[in-house]
Structure formats: C-alpha cells, structure tokens
Amino acid sequence: MSSGRLERVARFLTGGLMAGLAFLMGLGGQEPVAEPSQTVTSASAMSEAWHLAESAQMLAEAHEPAAALTEAQRAYDLSRDPLLLLQVARLERKVGNAARSTHAFELFLVQCGDRAPERIKLLAGRELMAAAAGTARLAVQTNVLGASVELEPQRGVATGSGFVVSVLLDAGERRVSFSKPGYETQTLQLKLDAGESRTLRVDLEKADGGRSESGAEKPRWSRL
Predict the structure, then answer these.
(1) What whole-number distance in Å separates Cα of residue 6 and Cα of residue 130?
(2) Where would I find the H helices in 62-171?
(3) What is the pLDDT at residue 123?
(4) What is the pLDDT of residue 207?
(5) Which residue segments constitute the domains of the chain, with CATH numbers given?
(6) Entry pTM
(7) How many other β-carbons are positioned within 10 Å of the β-carbon of residue 113?
(8) Are 163 and 145 spatial neighbours (Cβ–Cβ below 8 Å)?
(9) How does DSSP classify residue 115?
(10) Cβ pair 17, 120 in contact under 8 A
(11) What integer pLDDT is reported at residue 209 of this predicted model?
C-alpha cells in the first residue's frame, strides 16, 4: 500500500470525525442536561478536539509528522474517538515509534467497529503487520500487585493489571524498570530481536527506607 493512499484514507476519516464532532457540539448546545457545567466542559473539549484534528491534518500535509502527532494525540485524548487512532498510528510509525504505532493500530481495529469501512480496516491491518515487524513483546509476572513500569520515552507501551504486565517494545537494546512505593526498583537491560516474544519474572524486594533504585546492572529476573 502506498503512503499516498493511506494519507487519503486518514484525511477521509479525519473529515468524518470533524463532522461528527461538529454534530456533537451542536447537540451539546441544544439538549437539556442535569449538569450544565458538564455540558460546557464537553462542548469545550469537543471544540478543542476539532481544531486539534484539523491542525494535525494540516501539519501532516506540511510534512511535519512529529508536530502532527502531538496534535492528533491531544485530539484523541479529548474526544476518545477511535477514528483518530488511525492517524495517530500512521504518525507514530512515520516518526519511528514502531511499538506505539502497533499499539495504536491494534486499538483502532478493536474500537472502530462499524464506523470504518471494511476496506479501511484491511488497509489498517496491513499497516499493523508492517509496524509490528519491528517490535518485540514481553509478558512479565511480578510478585507484587500493581507494579509501575517505566519505559524509554516513545519506545514502548505497557498494559495489564494485577501481577502480570504486557509490554510492547521497539526491537533492539531496551531499558525497562519496575517499581512500587516501598520496594526496590528493578531495572532490566534487554536486547530484543524483531518479532521476539519473551516471558519474564521480576521480583521486587521490600526496601528498608522506602522506594530506592537498585540492580541496574544485575536485575533480578529470570525466564518463566
């Protein structure tokens, strides 16, 4: 699939999204609601999301993908409209963030439902496969509930809850830290091959004086 074709798809979806935001803003001003303050906030958020989406589209056409990504991500955060995820995913890949691009494509395909035509879903699926080819996945089991995961900026996405965390990372040399207040932070230095899936266990030890850093060179981890 050509870059130009996907750009036309993104413009199509963004245009539909902006029309939808305008419709919702109109409803927000017409429908009576129980909490007027919430209506004002919602209308304001929709208005800002509309302008951000429009700005992202113009920046992308001006070949400024990093700036366009910032605007598109902010628009999605405000509107939570899944159609914006396709643009976010494309821009993440364009600036070299394979894992974050893969994650956004996956979310788009899960959340878009009937709002996107099948042909666009097929195109997004192909783009997903291309982006995912440069990533690796970790399934990490910890000994504490709700451990926090710190990744290198823009190099990955961590999801999950409880004692298991799923981490999607760009392939290559990566640094991942696990922490929780009252426990020693454990840091892993990993070399991950493209397409690799690895299962790990990371045990956090209680810290005498609260949270602290330890084990950057020799982390406590092992394969399950």
Answers:
(1) 13
(2) 65-79, 83-94, 98-111, 118-132
(3) 94
(4) 86
(5) 3-132 (1.25.40), 135-223 (2.60.40.4130)
(6) 0.76
(7) 9
(8) yes
(9) G
(10) no
(11) 58
